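Continuing the series of single-chain predictions for the mutant panel. This is the parent chain; the variants come on the following pages.
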Amino acid sequence: MCPAFGGLRVLTRIDGVQVCLVADQGCLYGLTFVSHFYAARKSIISPQLMNVQISGGTMIDDLRHTIEGIALDPAVKFIPVVTTCVAETAGIAEELLPRKAGNAEVVLVRLPAFQIRTHPEAKDVAVATLVKRFARFDAPKKAKSLVVLGEIFPVDAMTIGGILQKIGVESVIVLPGTALEDYMEAGQAQACAVLHPFYERTVSLLEEQGMRIIKGNPIGANATVQWIRRIGEALGLDPLKVQTVAEEEGQKARDVLTQFKHLRGKVIVAGYEGNELPLVRLLLEAGLDVPYASTSIARTSLGEEDHKVLSTLGTEIRYRKYLEEDMQAVIDYEPDLVIGTTSLDSFAKERGIPAIYYTNNISARPLFFAAGAATVLSMISALLGKKAIFQKMQKYFTE
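Parent structure:
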């Protein structure tokens, strides 16, 4: 899938947005489809970039005309101009575009696949671009305020908000957000909790502005306690209150893990969302064997803690992975369950191994704290019990 999809996923969900996509017809068709299917069911407007426009030198004029047409709608408050490979190769000069048209802010978001490898990293580019343009870094900081950085399941956002309120956090902004105001107010926060390791550009920008960065996420008992403590330390909250809540939430997660102490089996995790390693930590903490994990993103400093933990516990980790590597892992390790991409799932099922699609089954479920652990482990428990059924189906279709 074109990585620009990740950026469009972020941009199309903003209230009052109208995306202007500068791409050839093939890219326009494909990205419109996936944006409707996976993102916000909003239309995408394009200047219908063709070779004749590039060779004739009318690309910028046509683009400006398209922006002016979009701005005629008073309901449009934000026009992200998204450029993909063809437009970037031809050359889009940001200074030739308006910063505002009608009532709408205009921002150029560069998402060429030849520069951005994966859709998680395109999310980072989109968020960083908006933060750079709109964040009010010059305004006074809000006391006990926090940015939570990471696209998460809505129930997780509510749970995180409730627990942060318990320890004394007074203001929480979740990015990527649905309101442009979220990006403005983000600059006034004291610290940023980064839930996913691929937001390198955004984190670098926030660090340059003096914001404290909190790594990790509350997945599993040990990480939950650690994450709550780090939030408290970063914001200078009441240590006793923070420790009490951290122990309470950690114990809730441990109680869930105890309920699933019967779990046994070998699981392979292979996704392209960029948040695979924290899931592996949860599975290992639950007593499962995870000999192999892979992800589409590169190894980053934000994910180094997870990397060290998993490596110490014996998990082979592949970054910037290829499908062939994942398929070989299925052959080598003979897992009882595969949580992977659709192509890998098909390969595993042909071998009589239960397999589910990572994106639709993990990213579409709560994952954090005790509630997330219970949800994920319940699903894993049910799937591990179906290996005999898959083997029966394989035998039926191959004999």
